[in-house]
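Each field is listed here:
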Amino acid sequence: MRIIGIDYGDRRVGIAVSDESEALASANRTLYVGGLNDAARQTAAAAAELKAGLLVLGLPLNMDGSASF
């Protein structure tokens, strides 16, 4: 199964993908988005293209551990 990691941002969304054995993941692409709906649409399209079996969404934190959203 391929696992897709999503690093959400207001303007960019980073996509990482694992190998089939789920042992290694690497950066795949950066999506340039115009808001939450566009981010969701583009991320869903990328997940379908990559045949994702599982999505993992990162929690955005500042260096001091506080929420950055």
User: Anything to note?
Assistant: The CA atoms of residues 4 and 43 lie 10 Å apart. The chain has a mean pLDDT of 92.
